[in-house]
Amino acid sequence: MRSEPVKPATVKRSRSFEAKGAYANQFTASSRQVLTMGEKLRKHGANTVVFDAKEVEGLPTYRSSVPREHLGLDSYYYPIEDVSKLVDYLHDRGVHVVARVCIFRDIHNSSKNARWRFDKEWVNPADRAVQDYNLAIIRELTSFGVDEIQVDYFRYPADRKASTGIEGKTRSDVLTAYAQRVHELTSSKGVLLSLDMFGIVIWQREDDVRVLGQDVMRLKDHFDVISPMLYPSHFSRNFSGIANPADQPYMFVSSGVKRMKVLVGDQVIIRPWLQSFPLRATIGSNPAYIKEQIRAAQASGAVGWLLWSPGNRYDEAYRAMESLAGKASVKAVRTSRTGQ
Q1: What is the mean pLDDT of residues 286-301?
Q2: Which CATH number fits domain 20-324: 3.40.190.10, 3.40.350.10, 3.20.20.80, 3.40.50.10950?
Q3: What is the mean pLDDT of the chain?
């Protein structure tokens, strides 16, 4: 038995490390399921778990000192008892551990703290106290030995507006300046920093960039990795002339990665989020569907990939990985154009 608290160390890796893995929600991460998940990923040729360290509810998903120091909360609900143990167990299984932190979509603080509120469920990205609160959580997570911090909802809400409340400051100005602060912290700790980005932003439509504030041409200087969310289901019907984008898994992942590669070159690693759920796919969300996305990412210049299933159901994904490794076969995916 250990006589001292577990104190795992960050496994320092270059940004070009080929992370291949999947998302674990806070409830999976708080149970032995995450260990089984890590073992299965390793068995099938992957190596990464992304766990919820702070979800859109706004409070850490683990026992943290930050809510007391920044919010005056003496107690709150958290499912993950000990992040250090979680990291240690996953490191023992050879897993790259990524802590996902939702930044500006924050239901708790937008409803409880009028000074921080920007919009329904959103806090103000330009508020220094909001920024410091999230920075404190990231700093705490680096002390637990995580290998990478991944920020999500690092944007403004899709409110069709462009205001920041600060004269002369665009939304991209605010996010870029804060990204620099976060990266200075993580790089000083030897921890990688990645960004979840709306897939639609890659198409560089001016209104999307102006409203969301996610200007990849500016943010690329402050992240090691950008993970565009290239879920085919999340593109609107008739986008790029495709009646149902969810039925074109290879096309949308390939196009998204290639477009981003043109924008960022080699300045930042592209590691896309891929769809491991059935939303809007009429051709069947099966191992072949997932395999097509992985193949598209690999063939288009991505370095690694991540699979998203909200309920963490990855049996079909494991079969897809087996097939890619040559250990099993799956039927070819039928796209919406098959047979036309």
Answers
A1: 92
A2: 3.20.20.80
A3: 90
Beta bridge partners of 80: 62
Whether 226 contacts 169, CB under 8 Å: no
Closest-CA residue to 296 (of 232, 217, 225): 232
Type of residue at 175: L
The two tokens of residue 77 are 């609900």
pLDDT at 160 over 90: yes
Q: Are 248 and 232 in contact (CB under 8 A)?
A: yes
pLDDT tens track for 41-55: 999 999 999 999 999
* φ and ψ of 62, to 5 deg: -135, 170
Residues 210 and 164: their CA atoms lie apart, in Å, by: 11
Give residue limits of the domains in the chain.
20-324
10: Cβ contacts below 8 Å, ≥ 6 apart: 142, 145, 146, 147, 189, 190, 191
The partner residues of 225 in beta bridges, in order of sequence, read 194, 269
For 161-213, the pLDDT digits (tens) are 999 999 999 999 999 999 999 999 999 999 999 999 977 777 767 778 899 99
129 touches 116 (CB < 8 A)? yes
Q: Indicate the SS3 state at residue 240.
A: coil
Residue among 269, 304, 289 at smallest CA distance from 338:
289
The SS3 of residue 64 is coil
* Whether the Cβ atoms of residue 216 and residue 188 lie closer than 8 Å to each other: no
Token pair of 53, please?
């360290």
Across the chain, the runs of DSSP E, i.e. the strands, are 20-24, 48-54, 96-102, 117-119, 122-123, 148-152, 192-198, 225-229, 269-270, 273-275, 305-308
